[in-house]
C-alpha cells in the first residue's frame, strides 16, 4: 500500500517541506487573519493543499498561469510548489490578503528560489496580459467567472475552474456567456478533484 507520505512526496517533490510550511501558515496566520475559517484547520492538507496541487494535471509544461481572486493563495501557491516549471501570477484585490501572500512567498523563496510566483493587487479586469491558463477556486459562479477570465486566456489557452458537484449545472447556466466569449466548456475529474475546463473554440 502506498503511504500518504509517498503520494505527497510524488506530488510536491523537492518542495514538500515548503508545502508543509505553507500549510502550517494557513492553519495559523491564515485563520487568525480571517483568510480561512477555523473549521478548515483539520483539513487544510487534503482539501486545500492536495486539491490545489492536482490542478497541475490539466496544465502543460512551462505554462503561464494566472490565479484569479487568489485569497490565501489557493490554488496558485500549491500549484507553483508542485510544478516549478510553471510561472504563476496571483491576482487579489484585498490588501490584507496581498500582504499575507507576499509574506508567505518571501519565506518560501528562501528554500525554493526555483518557484516562480508574482502577486498583483487588483481585479481581473486590471490585468493587461494573457496567460496559457486561468485558474479560480470558489471565486464566483461560472456565468460571472467567464467574463473575468476570457480576456486573460491566450490563444490556445483555457480556464481551469475548481468546482464541486454543481459543475455541469454551472456550465448549463453559463451557455450564453461561454458563447459570447468563444469558449467551449466541459467537466473533468481527476483523483477526486472536479474542474470546469473552458477552452477557446477554434476559428
Automatic annotation (TrEMBL):
It holds the Pfam family GidB. SUPFAM superfamilies: S-adenosyl-L-methionine-dependent methyltransferases. Gene3D superfamilies: Vaccinia Virus protein VP39. InterPro entries: rRNA_ssu_MeTfrase_G, SAM-dependent_MTases_sf. The keyword rRNA processing applies. GO terms for molecular function: rRNA (guanine-N7-)-methyltransferase activity. Keywords: Cytoplasm, rRNA processing, Transferase. CDD domains: AdoMet_MTases. NCBIfam families: rsmG_gidB. This is Unannotated protein. It comes from freshwater metagenome.
